[in-house]
Design a protein that fits this description.
about 190 residues; alpha/beta; about 25% helix; 5 helices; two-stranded antiparallel ribbon; seven-stranded mixed beta sheet
Length: about 190
């Protein structure tokens, strides 16, 4: 195991999941997705950790996250990268996550209230992209916004069954993909629903 993975695991174990929940806090210790309102969930902790580790974050990484949700995944990304650009389409979740993450002391997170299904072109390219909702196909816009030698994690499939894909763009712009796991995420609303 790399030193970075050990650091991520250590930080993850100290990250209080209940801080990112407004209700059902008594279930924060469980390794499963928990509803956070607005038909959204805070993801299963072991999956959040695995997805983060699969991105192989670097201290200089510029990260795009689609689906801020509770801000739990955002905190983990922000702790191990230079900057995170995160998009949430549901205003109450956006406002609450922004408030929480500022309270937690993060100053390297940029927030946007919008449909994130086509990314955030204004700040592209990104070294890493984390998609926390399921797309019916890999959005072309996200592939375009991924930097050479970049990595993207995205669940792709139907509402009932998705594969968690690791997409890598080599230095020549060629795309490679690997299926990491079978998962079930809430749908990515918008163009790739």
């Amino acid at each position: 195991m790399t030193n970075q993975n050990e650091e991520i695991i250590a930080y993850f174990k100290k990250l209080d999941r209940s801080f990112f929940m407004d209700s059902l806090k008594e279930f924060a210790y469980m390794d499963e997705a928990i509803p956070i309102g607005h038909e959204q969930t805070i993801s299963q902790p072991s999956l959040v950790l695995n997805m983060t580790q699969s991105l192989n974050l670097q201290p200089h990484s510029k990260v795009l996250e689609l689906g801020t949700g509770s801000g739990f995944q955002t905190a983990l990304l922000a702790a191990f990268s230079d900057s995170v650009y995160t998009i949430e389409r549901i205003e109450p979740l956006y406002e609450r996550a922004k408030e929480r993450l500022k309270e937690a002391g993060f100053s390297n997170i940029h927030f946007k209230l919008d449909d994130g299904s086509t990314g955030w072109d204004e700040h592209a390219p990104y070294d890493r992209i984390m998609v926390t909702a399921a797309a019916s196909e890999i959005p072309r816009e996200l592939l375009d916004q991924l930097a050479p030698s970049g990595k993207m994690i995205i669940p792709v499939g139907t509402p009932l069954y998705q594969e968690l894909l690791l997409i890598e763009k080599d230095e020549f712009g060629k795309i490679h993909q690997d299926a990491l796991d079978n998962v079930r995420f809430v749908p990515l609303k918008g163009k790739y629903e």
